[in-house]
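FAQ: What does the model actually see?

It sees only this:
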Amino acid sequence: MIRIVILSLLAVLVVILVLRFAPRLRALLLAVMRYPLLRYIPVGLVLRLVRLLIFRR
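And it is asked to produce this:
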């Protein structure tokens, strides 16, 4: 459980650093996140993956 939390924190940190130093990628991501359906797909997939990893018993 702790390993999953640490890995997710590292992944978030990497994403933040990439978005900070890649303005084109940040603009593209913000444009995609304006649409609710396109926003739901990646966010929903990440949440489902986290649920599967946490409750994989």
